[in-house]
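Suppose you are handed a protein chain with no further information: no name, no annotation, nothing but its sequence. What can you learn? This example shows the usual starting point.
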Amino acid sequence: MKKITMILLVLMIGLMNQLCAQDYSNVDLVGRNVLSPIVRMQDVVVEGHYAYVADEVSGLVIVDIQDPENLEVVGICNTPNEAKSVDVSGDYAYVCDLEDGLRIIDIGDPANPEEVGYYDVEGDSYDAAMYGNYVLFGGYETGVYVVDVSIPANPLQVAFADMYHVIGIVVSGDYAYAISSSHQMSIIDLSDITNPESISSLQITGGIHSITVQGDIAVAGVTQGYYVVDIGDPVNPNIETYISCDNYDLKLDNNYLYCARGMEGITVFDMSDPVNPSIVNEIPINIRPQVLTISDGYVFAGLKGLFAIDISDPTQPELLGEIPSLGFVWDVEVSGAYAYVGSNDYFHALDISDPHNPVLIYSYEIEDTAFSIEVSDGLAIAGTISGDSWLFDVSDPTAIQPLAVIEFERSVYGVAFSGNYVFSIGDHRMSVADISDPTNPSIEVEMESLIGRKICISGNYAYIASHNGITIVAIEDPLDPIVLSFTELGYHSFDVAVTGNTAVIADTEYGLITVDVSNPENPVLLAMVPTPDTAVDVTTDGDFAYVSDYGAGLRVFDIRDPSYPVETGYYNDLGVAYNVALDDRYVYVAEGNGLGIYDCSTAGVEDPITDTPDAPIRYLGNSPNPFNPNTTIRYSLAAPGKVSLCIYNVRGEKVKTLYDGVQDVGEHSHVWNGLDDSGKAVASGVYLNRLESTDQTVTGKMLLLK
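A reasonable first move is to predict its three-dimensional structure. Written in structure tokens, the prediction is:
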């Protein structure tokens, strides 16, 4: 095993969060098919004719429920992170978006919801509740925030209540009831909203996860049951009883308690005697609900999808309409006028002959996660987490037929065709299956201790993204593969594509990595380009690399000079980007909730998005990088003015001031020798150089390796 320590790390030019402030650059959305608008529902509320769903993947999903037998998704507003909860007041929805705080979304036109404001806090945000013109929401690491949203575009914090690990909050009357993962339920007096006061608390053991309040009763849900709490005197709440009943979520309504129990369905309790709740009914519906709400005689519940249940008679519930989920979309491959998509439980085919309107034409339930899709010569394979990987005849995409299952013994993360063979890479094993008879495939080779996420075949070589590097295997004889090299590169290499003598790798920590593989026994690292989020997939057409960067969407890089890749386009208004494929026209992205089709043609002819000559500062990067101990930071100024250049560690602490003064128009450079302001050598690691003028701030990432 070789470890390369001195490499060229090419930095993105410009401040990363400034790039992500815009939704797109040089990339245009052509068409989209949202296969699963509700993939992982975390919360749902009903207001008027609509249900508002907080979904981890899609963000805010708005469903028309006027006809409960025919539910219809009418609008979706992507959020930057993972939507965990939602509450609604008037024309606005308030979404807690995990690491991205509170998002405020205008829902005046339900078909076109639009974010109009946000309020960010330290750490994660899990739950929000309305109190007049105020939103109370929990910061997991901090406490309960009270934010004035009377002007939605300009939310203002007016108060704060200390509480650690807040995961849930409801408001009833002038009191807020907050729960924490540290087994605490607190009651907060809101009568003076600018000075909320915690007036009591209870220890609730057993993994508290939800709370519901009605009248003088609060019910706190824990993993294996629930506690009934008398809150008639908020200063002295009292636990009345504990009932054993596994649940994920629960709601009180008209003296009934509805418990969402996953595979057990929904259990209904009569709470008219809260000290002695009794089971009224158990609804063994096959929807595995983990989230629910109640409105006007209906339960709206689900996790994967949304379902409406008539409970006008709680003893005789009836399942009505549904918004089904076809699972999280993991992978996409394109062949001709068709796209083939893998999701949780399904293999899909879409007609993309009209890219503005991709149409689902085939779904096959495989009851497993189709994590990797590959298509070649009329065959498609869906590699699954269990290892059982499905072969399909797609020679006629209008009449697809399942052919056989290849029973690989371990999880399959990546698959690739080579002639009459399929190569799979998974959990510490590469396998080779003979598919010369695709109705009767046979596993011929199993190589232990080969760790990888994805596999790419080019010529007589297989290239494996091997967690923290690249493994190259000679496969001239597919039945006698020979490992030629493993080169440690990044932190977690997730995917690899090959063009000519260059391997292009998506790495979750270091972004885009290019490697010279002209000598397969001695690969040479050429460049690393950090991406804003988490690079999980990559494909290339030779001149450009297309990267799925999870929360930061689709990123496009010019790799005509593989030693100096330059980002030339991006599109980040798509929820999540997991995998990417292309044909000679468009780029196709597996977006978690569906398939997106993008035109990246202008990304190849426009100037790099980071190359903005009219900006006050044009950041030109630093070299060498990684370095030991010296590196030179270069930039140019469009106008004379005051400039400061400082070095920070990853904790945000200033390490060194390199320059602070006035400079003329033109190019400038400064050398950092790895010393802090006191003259002490700093430790190996990642450092940030921050360049500031009166009008602009840009940041670059550097790696000191000793």
